[in-house]
Amino acid sequence: SVLAQLDPSGLDSLRTVISAGEALPAAVASRWAHPQRLLLNAYGPTEVTVCASIESRLIPSHPTIGAPFPNVRLFVLDSLLRPVPVGLPGELFVSGPGVARGYLGQPSLTAERFLPHPFASSPGERIYRTGDRVRWLPSGRLEFLGRLDSQVKLRGFRIEPSEVSSLLRDHASVLDAFTLLREDSPSHLRLVSYVVSREPGHDPAALRTFLRERMPEYMVPAAFMFLDALPLTASGKVDTRALPAPDETHVGGGQGYVEPQGELERTLAALWCELLGLKRVGRHERFFDVGGNSLLIVRVQERLQTALGLQVSLPVLFQYPTLAGLAEHLSQAGGGARLESSQERGEGRKERMDQQREQRLARRKKGSA
């Protein structure tokens, strides 16, 4: 989540923080908790017009998703659509005027997710099946327990890993594929596809291009692992525990590792490795192909400014996604990037504070006149 990537220190004047789109871990909630700050945790899928509930009395050590908004009704039901007693887990269903009519051009999926309301107060009313596992607490608040199905959430987007695997199997070189979300280091989630090729020789760049032409960028795996066969359990299912974690040789665009050249490229490489949890990164590899995302690129921007004194705009970072390209651009000090010493930053900050102080004093004098 965004909150997990940002540092709350120095933000004592921030009075309200709203978390939504991703589950709010207790560790993140505790880090952002402040005696003078209102921390809100909201819940709601896109299908119900985003927010369905909100927790305004958040306990950081045990964040819940709160109670429904006034025009929303929430139900915790079992597999037979019967209400589940307080304290027991069940699936969350949502009804109310914010519930969508369905998925455009997908009648079967609409029928699966948008059901006739079992407790309808008016004819034709629908209820949305979220696929989320929750339970009611005695306080009347909801606790989020995770997903019921194989759908995962990455950087705020819902992804069906089996859809990625199915599309990979359509590639002429792929015999079989399995995709899952991995967290091999804390707070570093990435989508990984395990591929069984029809013939010797692997080309992850071709697979990545193939997927990009057929699905959104956020669904394209950060890494491809090529196996002789997928490991299976005794029941014939993929043994996810036996799937190896990808290393830096399986992440990237498949062009092969080329060592960074020059001090600036090596410094940028060290920064990328730190943020992406990699041991090395080549000078021609794209940031988004080695596990980067829109949240992490904001952290790159912050670190460039704090560690190197470089002010670089986000459009520039998107425009130059490789170490070589970014280093060349920065070395020319163009496109909104410039170097400044720590002394200059300190002097500039002091000047701004002095100006703000003078403005406050002027307003007070004007008000007392």
Automatic annotation (TrEMBL):
Any GO CC annotation of this UniProt entry: cytoplasm
UniProt feature, compositional bias: Basic and acidic residues: 341-361
Residue ranges of the region described as Disordered: 332-369
Gene3D superfamilies assigned: 3.30.300.30, ACP-like, N-terminal domain of ligase-like
GO BP terms, alphabetized: amino acid activation for nonribosomal peptide biosynthetic process; monocarboxylic acid biosynthetic process; secondary metabolite biosynthetic process
A GO MF label: phosphopantetheine binding
Domain Carrier: 259-334
Keywords: Phosphopantetheine, Phosphoprotein
Listed InterPro entries: ACP-like_sf, AMP-bd_C, AMP-bd_C_sf, AMP-dep_synth/lig_dom, ANL_N_sf, PKS_PP-bd, PP-bd_ACP
Protein name in UniProt: Non-ribosomal peptide synthetase
